[in-house]
Amino acid sequence: MVATDLGPPEPEPAPPLDPLTFEVPEDGSAITTRTALPTGIEHADVYLLVDTTASLRDEIDLLQRSITGPEGLVSRLRTVIPDVRIGVGTFADYGADPYGSAGDGDAAYTHRLDPTRDTAAVRAAVDGLTLTNGVDIAESLVPALWSMATGFGLAGPSGWNEARSESPSWSECEAGAQGWPCFRPDAAALVIVITDAISHNGPGEVESYDTAALGAAPPTWSATRVALEVLGARVVFVTTDGGGDATAMAQTLATETGAVDDGGEPLVYAAPSEGPTDIEPLVRGVSTLADRRYAMSVRLVTLEGSALPTLVTSVGAAPMDDATLGCVGFEEGATIGPDQRLCVEVGATLDEDVARGIFSGWLELAGDGRRLAARPLRVTVP
Fold first, then answer.
1. Same-domain pairing of 224 and 328
2. Taking the model in full, what pTM does it have?
3. Taking Cα atoms as reference points, which of 182, 86, 195, 93 lies closest to residue 144?
């Protein structure tokens, strides 16, 4: 039986950053403006990606008992990040011999819940997790991460063939949102994987799939790593194999996705045990990412085909403090901790080939190359 207490009322989330708006001069002269971006992680989409094969019975039961309530995972994460949304996905393996069994419910990936602040919806998604088979030892984590990050389906007997954009069962993502879960463009993407097994197609061609057996070529780790980098996701692990091969692979995957502490140690934790601290590893991973220091950089992010890059001529760190904005100057690549406001400069000029209108994008603050925060940008061509 699972708990039904949803915990304390949901607090008001931190409001999104106000857009930076300005108009480019009609005479073609350049304009430079400033804004501030907060360090740390104030907005995050946390995605629980859970191995549902039979050996995870105890961990799934524990997650179902600990997801909500006054000291549950949802409540604890809200004390770490002011605006946190939680989504849920699962993986087992391709439903074909010798990897898995479609008849037993095996699927290489299943997206179950978009990141949300709705505690009852998170509760329902976690309560709905059921055990599958996963015939061999290795599972389909790498293909699952690729599908999650790209929003594409998986070919072959994956049990998950549709792309998000083509699925009649799911709404379209909002503009700029990414991946199957529709990770927000102005929030950090944090993934927590719970597993006890290595993955097929892992780093170094470990346990590679037989494409002939599947009738398709599942994603490789190199392709998945690129997809996670484009998404800006950091992947934290909770492993239950006692420090074996699954833990070793998890350390590699966490490191290559930037899920490390200030000392560069990968955020891979032993499985939670029953008791009052049973969800501590999951909370600790998110807390470490929210509180650590990062090498900071700023970049412009736009929708595909946008004319904004032809208008914005420069985006970067402002070297001087600005008392009016309440921000501090910094240099690109400087290592900075949370609870700061960094000054950012944006330069723009009119392009005669761009029609009149309002062009939108985001000013993204990246820590070690992956999104921490983003402020909407709107530039008007008069």
1. no
2. 0.93
3. 93
Q: What is the pLDDT of residue 14?
A: 66
Residue 205 DSSP code: G
Per-residue exposure over 276-286, b if at least 16 CB sit within 10 Å of its own CB, e if not: eebbbbbbbbb
Rounded to 5 degrees, what are φ and ψ at 256? -75, -10
Is the same domain home to 305 and 277?
no
Q: Which residue(s) pair with 83 in the sheet?
A: 43
Does residue 198 sit in the same domain as residue 106?
A: yes
Q: Are residues 34 and 47 in the same domain?
A: no
Identity at 8, one-letter amino acid code: P
Contact 188, 373 (CB under 8 A): yes
Q: Which is nearest to 214 in space by CA: 130, 143, 308?
A: 143
228 falls within a domain:
yes
- How many angstroms separate the CA atoms of 73 and 125, rounded? 14
What local confidence, expressed as pLDDT, does residue 10 receive? 60
Cis amide linkage into residue 11, ω under 30° from 0: no
| C-alpha–C-alpha distance, residues 148 and 154, integer Å | 10
Place of tokens 């309440």: 326
Do 305 and 352 belong to one domain?
yes
Give per-residue pLDDT as tens, 166-194.
999 999 999 999 999 999 999 999 999 99
CB 228 within 8 A of CB 143: no
Nearest to 156 by CA among 142, 139, 141, 143: 143
Q: Is 146 helix (H, G, I), strand (E, B) or coil?
A: helix
131 — phi, psi (to 5°)? -75, 145
